[in-house]
Amino acid sequence: MKLPPLKSLPVFEAVARLNSFSLAAEELAVSQSAVSHQIKQLETYLGEKLFWRSGRTLTLTDEGRQYLDGIGSALLQIERVSEQLLGHEESRLRLSVFSSFAVRWLVPRLPDLQREHPQLELSLEMSSENPVLSDRVADCFITIKPASAAFSYELLYIERLFPVCSQDYWQRIRRELGRDSEIEGRDEPELSPEEVSRFPLLSTHSIFDKAAGDWEAWYRGVDQTIPGAARIQHFSHMLLALEAARYHQGIALTNDYMLSTRKDSGDFVRLPCHSVMTGDKFYFAWKTSRQRERGIRILRRWLVDEAIRGGLRAE
């Protein structure tokens, strides 16, 4: 079996991950010259340059990036198999997850996960965009783009948007529409799109990557366009639009997981209106080659059970 200089591999992984020779030396408790020597030895063996150095800037070459993808996974697997043989029960996982999904749905449930599976040590990596599926980023992911054939996917949620506002603002809407004399309840007449447009529309730019794209889609769902007189207030993130709605600034479009379990979900009223599907599907993703790992199997089952219990997906 022909192998590269094995001592060089964890050194290379550390330098690539930390993007620094000095930080890698500090983490590995060796001198910076020792790190440089190991990288030089590995580059000589491979016959390829793994890093570009320009002053204090250090970047991986294309060959270095390709090599990291391969040996990074191998080193992680060696670590995990060794821990199993040593009798270590802990499972450490990094989960890359959208900030809104983490803040409004996942984090409030983490105490239950820790109580049910104390051996699972979960670290969250916040992602504002769709994450790159790679071991360098995380061990598993919440993603809306099941693009990599090297990964397996479990559906958690098919997104739909519906209008909400604060409890106080809902009473204002009812007064202005002349409904305050009616008995509030299940038989509340549906608001028409024209009635909704009489109040400020709180829009999230990031949903459809265009200004007022969320409200355009909502009106398009009933073959209409946003009335020209509508007042639209723009936000970069759904979390911000929902906070604005909480403080009586208008009507926001949100989804199921944003109001799933937080105690303050009672601050909001879902308006009697139609909903619209965004086309986004949220998946739990993990590398197929790691599907037998105990931590990934535990987290997958727990996420699916919670999604079913919280009404995000059917059984």
From TrEMBL:
Q: Which UniProt keywords apply?
A: DNA-binding, Transcription, Transcription regulation
Name all HTH lysR-type domain ranges.
4-61
- Keyword set includes Transcription: yes
Q: Which domain of life is it from?
A: Bacteria
Q: Can you provide one Gene Ontology molecular function annotated for this UniProt record?
A: sequence-specific DNA binding
Tell me which InterPro entries the record gives: LysR-type_TF_proteobact-type (IPR058163), LysR_HTH_N (IPR000847), LysR_subst-bd (IPR005119), WH-like_DNA-bd_sf (IPR036388), WH_DNA-bd_sf (IPR036390)
One Gene Ontology term from the biological process aspect of the record: positive regulation of biosynthetic process
Per the record, the similarity remark reads: Belongs to the LysR transcriptional regulatory family.
Full protein name: LysR family transcriptional regulator
**Organism of this sequence:** Marinobacter orientalis
